[in-house]
Amino acid sequence: MSTVHLIDHPLVQHKLTLMRRKEASTNSFRRMLGELSTLMAYEITRDFPLQDLEIETPMEKMVGKVIDGKKLALVSILRAGNGFLDGMLNVVPGARIGHIGLYRDPETLQPVEYYFKMPDNMGERDVIVVDPMLATGNSAAAAVQQLKDKCQPKSIKFMCLLAAPEGIKTMQAAHPDVDIYTAAVDRQLNDHGYILPGLGDAGDRIFGTK
């Protein structure tokens, strides 16, 4: 069974609380998401591989360590996942970017893929899939399955702002090998599949749409 990693750093929790407020503007929500995603990226990359890099300090040459960013891919589940990318690239600027677009079929209620674009050499890469909300978990599970079927990456992690118990259960059942990183596990879903207490529709709040 995969592990749920709760990122409870005080700065993460502080910014998340400010983002939850209904009066938070689009500008402040987007800015805080960028700051928070940078902090979360620090935690999720804690065990990432390093490579040697020969450099020259003002005093002498030496061999230092850098994250092997060329082997990392950040995969955004459209559209809300894009809100994570700039903040994470502050930490791992060498990462490549992929996108997966999914919509929910109104009859079957199952995710349907409409867009899939990945960097080259995905079989050699560690992947972080990002989406602010893990609600039912159906879209996240479908996105990870598409990655496995089409790309077979070295490893996959999933990162979100908020997770509902229902979404965690769905992801762990479908992908017991994919760890989940989140800033909070909220109480439940409502009848429309929104997380409670949640923060509303993350995509709308990031992009100022309704």
TrEMBL record:
Entry GO terms, CC: cytoplasm
Gene Ontology molecular function: any one: GTP binding
Every Phosphoribosyltransferase domain range: 7-209
Alphabetic keyword roster: Allosteric enzyme, Glycosyltransferase, GTP-binding, Magnesium, Nucleotide-binding, Transferase
Pathway: Pyrimidine metabolism; UMP biosynthesis via salvage pathway; UMP from uracil: step 1/1
Cofactor binding, note field: Binds 1 Mg(2+) ion per subunit. The magnesium is bound as Mg-PRPP.
Superkingdom assignment: Bacteria
Described purpose of this protein according to its UniProt entry: Catalyzes the conversion of uracil and 5-phospho-alpha-D-ribose 1-diphosphate (PRPP) to UMP and diphosphate.
Family in the record: Belongs to the UPRTase family.
Protein name as it appears in the record: Uracil phosphoribosyltransferase
Organism annotation: Comamonas piscis
